[in-house]
Amino acid sequence: MRASSGATMRTFFAIAVALLSLQLWKAKYGLKNAIFTTPDLPEGYYHAGNYLTQCSTLKDEQNGLLKHCEDATFWEMHDDAGKLTERKVILSCDAGRREWNTVMGPLKNPEPHGSLWLYTPQTSKTVQISLEEYPAGHDFHPLGIEVYPSYGGNASYLYVVNHARQKTVIEQFLVDPAKPTLAKYLQTLSHPLFISPNSVALTSPTSFFVTNDHLFTRRLPILGSFVPLVETLLTLPLGFVSHVSLDGRAESEQSTISHSVVAPFISFSNGVAVSPQGSQLAVASTTVGKVYIYNITKSPSPSVTHVHTIQLPFSVDNLAWTSPSEIVVAGHPHFPSLLKFIARKREYAPSWVVAIQINIDGSPKATPNETKTFDIHAPLSLNTKVPPPPAPYTIETLFQSDGSVFSTSTTGLHDPLTGELYISGLYAEDGAMICKPEVNQ
Ligand SMILES: *[C@@H]1O[C@H](CO)[C@@H](O)[C@H](O)[C@H]1NC(C)=O
Ligand SMILES: *[C@@H]1O[C@H](CO)[C@@H](O)[C@H](O)[C@H]1NC(C)=O
Ligand SMILES: *[C@@H]1O[C@H](CO)[C@@H](O)[C@H](O)[C@H]1NC(C)=O
């Protein structure tokens, strides 16, 4: 009996080691580029002009609270005829992130609230959004955010992932273009499978995809101090994406939630975005440095089918799919530098923002014979780090920095109307940056 249970154990370990090796092999570009190599990044590079003259940070001149911004999202304004007239930007920031970060730690002080900000391109003003009727004593640590477009001036539902002290929940607010710096609190959404929500992507005013970055979280007693780290470092595919819909809710009642896991087994699933047509989903897998593209099937209930994988040379954070032909991806080119920066052992940590361009008519721009011809303008080209993406995609750097110009990029937004690029920074002292294209270039 002893011999056979020994053999069973050995078989078990052999299988575990084989699976882990396979997983680490899949993660090879992510690990090699973002952990084991220090990238040779320039001080700054902006694809549509000179970063010194075209890029500036968004600041809270009064109180310095606009910092450590994890996410940014466009709030689209459509007129009565349905024509898009303006994209405002909403930012989610948390000045206390160095004391409270449920993804990377530490969990020291959840008291100071994070904040939401509104940037209006027409006035170039950034103003804090006040939360109306927000429950007293309820923590506010905003992470992923998304807001439904406004049509003909109507109000929009805004969803905010909130890393509250006991568990992560999703807050629903109402924002009205007539009073754009007020967000009226509606309800707090909670579910047993909201284990570690990170990012949301809306599929209607009352339904969305949500990523869960880890299965084991830092809030777990005892285990929380090391198991989530093991999950991250071994790139264990324990994150997942769910679809959530809320039923029609009468005034001041709590919605009931329909929840289904649509894409399980993703390593550190982080950013999520739905294509403007609503037909495809993009999901960032941070530790393996990949973006997965899925087709969405809407009925009977939403499900997804994997179609493509795009490899990038950094720890992919958030995604924004702001035009049918472009997904903007931001991330962390060197994880050890990020950790040192958080621990104040470095002055900055690098940023990289790229566009995945989708050649809609289908003919591939880069054939395998031309592997070194993509991203030819960036000082540190993607083509020195990763293989070309599959057709119909190409990849191009929009912004990169060793961190001295802008640190810790988490989200990039590219406005197809104006060409303006917005970047938020997880631990950036000035929480976000805007770069405006040089005219006549
Ligand atoms: C605003 O109008 C759009 C388009 O008609 C609609 O889908 C949306 O539900 C409306 N928003 C709210 C909060 O009622
Ligand atoms: C995804 O959708 C596109 C467009 O509808 C279709 O051409 C393609 O075959 C689909 N791929 C898969 C794997 O379902
Ligand atoms: C790549 O293309 C060039 C010219 O089109 C051709 O001469 C060359 O043989 C091709 N190389 C490979 C590896 O297919």
Automatic annotation (TrEMBL):
Segment forming the signal sequence: 1-27
Keyword annotations from UniProtKB, A to Z: Signal
Keyword Ribonucleoprotein: no
SUPFAM superfamilies for this protein: Calcium-dependent phosphotriesterase
Cited InterPro entries: 6-blade_b-propeller_TolB-like, Serum_paraoxonase/arylesterase
Record-given protein name: Uncharacterized protein
Species whose genome carries this gene: Marasmius oreades
